[in-house]
Design a protein that fits this description.
The chain is an all-alpha fold. It is built from 20 helices and no strands. The chain has a domain of 71 residues: Tetratricopeptide repeat domain (Serine Threonine Protein Phosphatase 5, Tetratricopeptide repeat, Alpha Horseshoe), CATH 1.25.40.10.
Length: 339
């Protein structure tokens, strides 16, 4: 949204004070030009109407292109048949920012749909759009591509790799290459890239986590655990490392230690309600049902708008036979869904 200039100086005053002063000076609220702010806010907060609001702003030709691109970047969690058209149109938009955001938003779609929508963008006139299309399509098998199509596809893939090699001395570039190769199923190259990122900067935790996840995909949880323990040793407050290690230990049926790791992740998680949810589910599944409910109730205070937490509270209280609590949290869910 628009910056609040008043409270930049008057930091001891609430925003309501600033609003009152504006009304005193000007007599009536002035309509701002950034009409897209509410849609972006809804997308970031997970509002039930976020998909509808974001799509409306993207379709509005009066919305600035940078705001349309921002709205598209927030759209993936809310994609359905009612708004998929905005991505289809965004891929053909005249503005490169909008095309770039649209192709990024395709990640995670079924492969058949991904190929249909993203393939034309690997020959886009703007390089940033081409290489993003290549990244998104990394997991797509070459299949029956032949002739000119295969040539364009290979050129886009090579262009993406080259774009990262320009910054090969940076761990971020090696991480990107590792993710790219992992998506393509070229695991040895991915492992090499992740390890090079760690060698370049041994405190770069994302490389450890992605390397561990690749070992997990290869069903090598022992090696994944080893990598994650190294990550925690060099970054003892990293919430993602504790969470990943907790899940690794769960897969190895080391439940007691897994709970400790997930507890650390949940305690450090100031913005990620899902980590707290997973910890509560782990507690509940190991028979610690009362503690799980305590964790969820505390999480509901910290993350009052999180549906996953509220749904778990409803389910766990229902299992415990507490119908009053079920109805209480059902009402909260209903109220949240009306926003």
């Amino acid at each position: 949204g628009a910056p609040n200039a008043c409270n930049q100086c008057h930091q001891d005053k609430p925003v309501t004070w600033a609003a009152e002063r504006v009304r005193e000076w000007y007599g009536k609220p002035l309509t701002g030009y950034q009409n897209y702010a509410n849609a972006l806010d809804a997308g970031r907060k997970g509002s039930s109407k976020a998909g509808e609001m974001l799509a409306e702003q993207i379709r509005d030709i009066e919305t600035p292109n940078i705001a349309r691109a921002s709205a598209i970047s927030l759209l993936p969690p809310y994609l359905d048949e009612s708004n998929i058209d905005v991505l289809q149109k965004g891929l053909k938009d005249e503005d490169a920012m909008v095309r770039l955001a649209s192709v990024s938003a395709l990640e995670g779609l079924p492969l058949a749909m991904l190929v249909q929508l993203a393939f034309p963008l690997i020959d886009d006139p703007v390089r940033s759009v081409r290489i993003e299309a290549a990244r998104v399509m990394a997991a797509v098998p070459v299949g029956r591509l032949q002739g000119e199509q295969l040539k364009i596809y290979k050129h886009a893939m090579n262009e993406y790799i080259h774009s990262q090699m320009v910054n090969a001395e940076r761990p971020e570039a090696q991480l990107n290459l590792g993710n790219f190769y992992a998506a393509k199923g070229e695991f040895d190259k991915a492992i090499t890239a992740y390890k090079k990122a760690i060698k370049l900067e041994d405190v770069f935790v994302p490389a450890y986590i992605n390397l561990a996840d690749l070992y997990r995909a290869q069903e090598n949880d022992a090696e994944a655990e080893n990598v994650l323990r190294k990550a925690i040793k060099i970054a003892p407050d990293n919430v993602d490392a504790y969470y990943a290690l907790g899940l690794s230990l769960v897969r190895q049926k080391k439940n007691d230690e897994a709970l400790k790791m997930l507890q650390r992740a949940a305690g450090f998680a100031t913005t990620n309600a899902h980590y707290v949810y997973v910890y509560a589910v782990a507690l509940n599944s190991t028979g610690k049902k009362d503690i799980a409910l305590d964790v969820l109730r505390d999480a509901n205070v910290r993350f009052p708008h999180d549906r996953e937490i509220l749904n778990a509270l409803v389910a766990f209280h229902r299992d415990a036979g507490n119908e009053f609590a079920v109805q209480t949290y059902m009402k909260k869910l209903k109220k949240l869904n009306q926003k």
